[in-house]
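Q: My labmate handed me this sequence with no annotations at all. I'd like to see what the chain might look like in three dimensions before we decide whether it's worth expressing. Could you predict it?
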Amino acid sequence: MEFANINDTMRMAKDEDKRFMPLFGSETFRSWILYFRPGEHTDMHFHMSPETFLVLQGKASVKGIKGEERVIEQNEMVFFAAKDYYQIANVGSEPLVLVGNRSEAFGGVHVTAQE
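A: Here is what I predict for the chain of 115 residues:
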């Protein structure tokens, strides 16, 4: 068994100015925290395995490769199937904090969209 304190991890991400904070990992699963300052975003990309994000704090714009977009806020989740392109952006005035889970080990493939 492993345990994590989300509040401590969020505080550490902010204090150390780190976007990515690993929580748990194995050969077939990983869990982490993402911390975005206002205006920060990911690139348009996909992963080889299904993935979820839960918003702990803030407001996120989730965009797909075809231009579809939805804003999600605290306590809302998004699911991406394997190879679903997406981009996440902090569209709020406070930090955006997400918990992510993916069915692969840390270091998996990150495929960016061709501009």
